[in-house]
Amino acid sequence: EEESTVDLLMDALIAYEGSNGLKNCIPTGTKLLSMRMEGSTCVLDFTGEFLAGCESISEEQLAVHSVIATVCQLPEVSYVEILVEGIEPSYRDPTLAQLRMPMDSWFVS
């Protein structure tokens, strides 16, 4: 069975070990449980480690931003919805629940 481009991209993002001073924003132990496309929205369901491994609001923001910014680079994806263990996550920063696409302020210009 062939993996989709999104699956391959998420596998690479989750597995990234860091280098040259960069580190992975996705918490260790996180796994992608499922991925589905609903029109141009990519729905990603992660294991509980996705949130449990974040020790602060800023780590949680970086994890969410990393996933959304990465997946929205694909031409077939306009929006991303993140689930954790099949349900809408309860974030420390409640504004994260409304994010579905990257914001310009996330990137250095």
Write the layout of secondary structure elements.
Elements: H1 5-15, E1 32-38, E2 41-46, H2 49-52, H3 57-71, E3 79-84
Parallel strand pairs: 2-3
Antiparallel strand pairs: 1-2
Key features of this structure:
alpha+beta, 109 residues
Amount of beta strand: 15-25%
Shape: globular
- What's the story with the biggest beta sheet? 3 strands, mixed
Spatial order of the strands in the main sheet?
1-2-3
**How would you spell out the order of helices and strands?**
HEEHHE
> Roughly how many Å is the radius of gyration?
13 Å
Taking pLDDT < 50 over at least 5 consecutive residues as the criterion, the unreliable ranges are: none
Give the CA-CA distance, first to last residue.
Answer: 39 Å
Number of strands: 3
- Count of helical stretches: 3
State the helicity in percent bands: 25-40%
Q: How is the quaternary structure best described?
A: single chain
Q: Structural class, from helix and strand content?
A: alpha+beta
For the residues shown, what is the average pLDDT? 93
